[in-house]
Amino acid sequence: MNNKKQVKTDLIKMENFLEYNKKIKEGEDTFKKLMFIYSMAIKELETKLEIFKSEFKFLYNYELIDYINTRIKNPKSIIKKMELKGYDLTYKEMIEHINDIAGIRIVCLLKKDIFSIRDLIQKIPGINILKQKDYITHPKKSGYSSYHLIVEVPVTLSQNIIYVKTEIQIRTVAMDFWANLEHKMKYKPEGDIDKKDSKEWINCAKMINKIDNKMMLLNR
Ligand code: 0O2
Predict the structure, then answer these.
(1) What pLDDT does 14 receive?
(2) Quick check: CB of 144 below 6 Å from ligand 1?
(3) Which of 93, 104, 160, 190 has the highest count of CB atoms within 10 angstroms of its CB?
(4) What is the number of the ligand 1 atom nearest to the C-alpha of 71?
């Protein structure tokens, strides 16, 4: 006898969520619902990454991942980015174009580990890689150096599986220190970095890059 139950599961892309959602229930708080789904994508991915972290520690006694931070972009920041990029302030445009509403940052000790982590992410079953930016090989003008991936994470809910876009940033502890400070300076209301300061920030980033390279040699 075949005891397997046929469970109907809808596979949907986040881009089609609004249409799909309309069919289920009208008038629910759409923003809250969307943010819930983004936070589930983070949970899903974070668990997988935590397993890699533990596996490398337990099996190889190696600290591949130092720490993982996650965040949901706040509404103010979403609106600011949409205005800056010239999108209409609609949920549809937000879902389609804002790729970093769900964000995960993986921080490691050595530069070379960034690429190992990238390779592991690429092998996770079910995850689609949509975009990659290698600011490690080619740092930004600001000096910012990090590896970015935009991925689609399948979030399995009771009635459906939703593919949710999530941004992953991978960088070293040293670059994380620089980026956090520089980000705070840039985004402070009074934090316009003037030209002289800007050069200093770039110089600091270059120094950090040198240190990261040296650390890699010392840890060979
Ligand atoms: P927050 O507060 O971190 O969310 P895309 O539209 O996805 O193709 P996007 O997002 O415009 O491209 O640009 P990119 O280069 O992928 O960078 C996205 C994020 O990287 C930023 O998010 C920052 O977190 C980080 N970042 C990029 N450049 C710099 C930099 O020069 N300095 C620092 N400190 N961080 C940087 P948000 O939206 O700016 O902010």
Answers:
(1) 78
(2) yes
(3) 104
(4) 4
| Residue 121 Ramachandran class (φ > 0 left, ψ -120 to 50 alpha, else beta) | alpha
Residue identifier of the C-alpha nearest atom 4 of ligand 1: 73
Mean pLDDT lowest among 100-109, 167-176, 187-196: 187-196
Q: For ligand 1, say whether the CB of 48 is within 6 Å of any of its atoms.
A: no
Q: Is 176 in the pocket of ligand 1 (CB under 6 A)?
A: no
Reported as a single tens digit per residue, the pLDDT across 54-89 is 999 999 999 999 999 999 999 999 999 999 999 999
100 pLDDT above the threshold of 60: yes
